[in-house]
């Protein structure tokens, strides 16, 4: 092919073969002391620099000329010398492929691939150039925000991935150097959303190539770190001050008439600005898409195993995290039988074993409780199996305490025990009705001897969150599993002095990591598999809202209660006011979650996020 270039009023016509000979001659002619270079050769070199000027915006004809020049440079790579051609290399390494058509991009990337193979010369610069192109240049950001160039974006990512793969296949050192470059180039907290999303999307695409086997763990770890950093910068102080007296189940949703109905405007007051939430939302979409692609290509388990390690190291004990942990939730939903079960066992193992510190174990059991309660894809038999392990651990703890000469109800000393008791009750608030529908599972629950741990002298019913205790006791009584009531003075309290004590400085008594997910765009990945309290069927109400009949509980005496257990009984079982309107999160009709509404209601998600984590320290 041929093309024409105009630079500084000088026209030069090239065919491919002529271009190669000309470029080779120009490169060779300036490989000497600048004072010795012939002026005509210097002029030709300046024309070459102009031809590959990274700041020039080109027409289609100009791009054809550029492609010809780049192909000629590829053939003459051996003549390029950093000492004499520094300006030329600078132009090449600062070019953005986002401005060019497919043919020009191919020519540029081929030159980069060939330069990377020059021994001990340009590998780092070539890889840095490719990583720089993970994100579009500033002037193209508005187009990316409007999503008018999705096809081109995906095409560019594919070309970048292929180029990096070819370099890694050719240069053994490349993956290690690339890993370091990506680490240094990762978006920072205050970078704009488009840069963050584009970089992470392109970077995660490397995980589907062979290159992912070499640096995949590092890539995911950096992404999770970024998600977590954004997450913890979304704060809750105002909400916590406002809702200190509300129950856990009331906090899930509430009527927010009067708030603005768009995500950014709604959250601005709560977040002190909506920037972090919007960035996090966009990144969560990218990560969920990546995990879905892994599932479709049969490599989800590999990614999940990497995520488990990252989660344990960097997320488990980050109690201010509200959304980042949902990447685990979504990964599990894509493969409930393997990943879903694995995650439940993984968390339970952390809790039951003594390898980790108390905070890690309390965090793990909080995750177990929240996960089993909220994950629709987890079967009832799995829930029962995990509950049995938690209850067995609690029974062993109580037995160990009985052997001690002095035994005190110290919330701090027994905080792991109380956390486990609370997790058991919380799960049963959500899942007891569904468990009761299966005779074999119902029988297993009744054999767990839950009553013995709740009636233990350590008195978990007095220490755990009152709102959870009340709801559990009501459902347990209706199911004929257990019968007791707490002092009604506590029923509207979200916490108590005793729960604060066992929760510690991190307030793990109020840590429910899989509370409702309220990031607007990425919500569509979580919602189909998430259990909302407003949709939970309880044991004390049938579909018409009436009390259920006999659950046929084996050997259950509904009036039994330990004489030494001094919790005040509430015998008024017909008190209509003691309903889910007071105990639950069921909202006014205008703010039901979309899943609970009929198709064309046109309702949006609640405007305000209900935290269950502690105030920032």
TrEMBL record:
This is RNA polymerase I-specific transcription initiation factor RRN3. The lineage of its organism: Eukaryota, Viridiplantae, Streptophyta, Embryophyta, Tracheophyta. InterPro entries: RNA_pol_I_trans_ini_fac_RRN3. It comes from Urochloa decumbens. Belongs to the RRN3 family.
């Amino acid at each position: 092919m041929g093309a024409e270039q105009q630079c500084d009023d000088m026209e030069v016509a090239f065919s491919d073969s002529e271009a190669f000979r000309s470029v080779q001659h120009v490169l060779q002619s300036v490989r000497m002391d600048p004072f010795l270079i012939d002026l005509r050769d210097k002029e030709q070199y300046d024309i070459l620099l102009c031809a590959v000027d990274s700041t020039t915006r080109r027409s289609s004809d100009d791009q054809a000329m550029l492609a010809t020049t780049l192909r000629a440079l590829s053939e003459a790579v051996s003549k390029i010398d950093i000492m004499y051609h520094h300006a030329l290399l600078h132009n090449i390494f600062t070019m953005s492929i986002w401005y060019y058509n497919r043919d020009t991009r191919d020519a540029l990337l081929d030159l980069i691939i060939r330069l990377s193979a020059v021994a001990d010369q340009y590998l780092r610069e070539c890889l840095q150039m490719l990583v720089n192109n993970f994100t579009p240049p500033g002037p193209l950001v508005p187009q990316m925000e409007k999503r008018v160039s999705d096809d081109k974006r995906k095409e560019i990512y594919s070309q970048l991935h292929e180029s990096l793969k070819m370099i890694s296949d050719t240069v053994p050192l490349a993956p290690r150097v690339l890993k370091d470059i990506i680490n240094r180039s990762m978006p920072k907290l205050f970078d704009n959303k488009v840069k963050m999303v584009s970089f992470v999307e392109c970077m995660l695409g490397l995980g589907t190539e062979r290159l992912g086997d070499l640096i995949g763990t590092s890539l995911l770890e950096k992404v999770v770190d970024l998600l977590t950093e954004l997450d913890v910068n979304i704060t809750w102080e105002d909400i916590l001050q406002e809702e200190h007296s509300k129950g856990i189940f009331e906090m899930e949703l509430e009527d927010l008439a009067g708030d603005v109905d768009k995500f950014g405007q709604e959250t601005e007051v709560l977040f002190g600005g909506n920037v972090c939430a919007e960035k996090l939302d966009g990144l969560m979409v990218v990560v969920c898409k990546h995990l879905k692609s892994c599932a479709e290509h049969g490599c989800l388990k590999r990614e999940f195993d990497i995520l488990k390690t990252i989660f344990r190291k960097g997320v488990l004990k980050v109690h201010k995290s509200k959304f980042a942990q949902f990447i685990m939730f979504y990964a599990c939903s894509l493969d409930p039988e393997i990943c879903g079960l694995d995650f439940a066992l993984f968390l339970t193992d952390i809790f039951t074993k003594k390898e980790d510190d108390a905070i890690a174990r309390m965090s793990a059991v909080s995750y177990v409780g929240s996960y089993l309660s909220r994950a629709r894809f987890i079967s009832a038999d799995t829930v029962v199996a995990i509950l049995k392990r938690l209850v067995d651990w609690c029974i062993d703890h109580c037995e160990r305490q009985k052997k001690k000469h002095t035994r005190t109800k110290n919330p701090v000393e027994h905080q792991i025990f109380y956390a486990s008791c609370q997790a058991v009750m919380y799960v049963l608030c959500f899942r007891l009705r569904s468990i009761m529908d299966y005779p074999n599972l119902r029988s297993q629950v009744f054999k767990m001897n839950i009553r013995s741990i709740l009636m233990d002298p350590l008195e978990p019913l007095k220490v755990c969150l009152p709102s959870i205790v009340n709801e559990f006791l009501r459902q347990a009584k209706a199911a004929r599993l257990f019968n007791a009531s707490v002092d009604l003075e506590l029923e509207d309290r979200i916490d108590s002095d005793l729960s604060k004590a066992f929760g510690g400085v991190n307030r793990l008594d109020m840590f429910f990591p899989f509370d409702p997910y309220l990031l607007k765009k990425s919500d569509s990945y979580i919602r189909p598999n998430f259990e909302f309290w407003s949709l939970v069927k309880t044991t004390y109400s049938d579909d018409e809202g009436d009390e259920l009949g006999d659950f046929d509980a084996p050997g259950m005496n509904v009036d039994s209660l330990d004489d030494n257990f001094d919790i005040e009984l509430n015998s008024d079982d017909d008190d209509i006011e003691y309903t889910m309107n007071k105990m639950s999160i069921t909202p006014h009709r205008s703010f039901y979650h979309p899943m609970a509404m009929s198709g064309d209601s046109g309702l949006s998600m609640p405007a305000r996020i209900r935290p269950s984590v502690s105030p920032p320290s």
